[in-house]
Amino acid sequence: QDGDFKFPLESVKKLKELMEGNRHINPRVMVPMASYSPCQDKHLPEEFRPVCKREDAPMIFRRLSLAAEDDLCEICANAACAGCF
């Protein structure tokens, strides 16, 4: 969840994969993840398309990607989690 947007965890994991796979445009130039927006990617799950219409889309995608970090259990990554830590 990010603000009023809610997405399935599996879609957020797919978003994270897209963002990590597209950070390099040129081997010598890395695009900062905070400025990358996957909106032009044809593999972007459809539920993220409304985010693409927002000016702050790169930051929303960045926050969602952080929510899918591998070190979080799926229960803790879920907005309903009361606290695993």
Concise structural overview:
It is found in: Secreted. With 85 residues, the protein is mainly alpha-helical.
> Which structural class is indicated by helix and strand composition?
mainly alpha
**SSE sequence, one letter per element:** HEEHHH
Low-confidence stretches: none
Strand order of the largest sheet: 1-2
The number of domains is 1
Calculate the mean pLDDT score and round it.
Answer: 75
SSE blueprint and pairings:
Blueprint: H1 9-21, E1 24-26, E2 29-30, H2 49-52, H3 57-67, H4 74-77
Antiparallel strand pairs: 1-2
Helix pairs in contact: 1-3
Describe the structure.
Helix content is 38%, strand content 6%. With 85 residues, it is mainly alpha-helical. It has one domain (9-75). The protein has a two-stranded antiparallel sheet with strand order 1-2. The longest helix has 13 residues, at 9-21. The radius of gyration is 13 Å and the shape is globular. The chain starts with 8 loop residues before the first helix and ends in an 8-residue tail after the last helix. The model has no long low-confidence stretch (mean pLDDT 75).
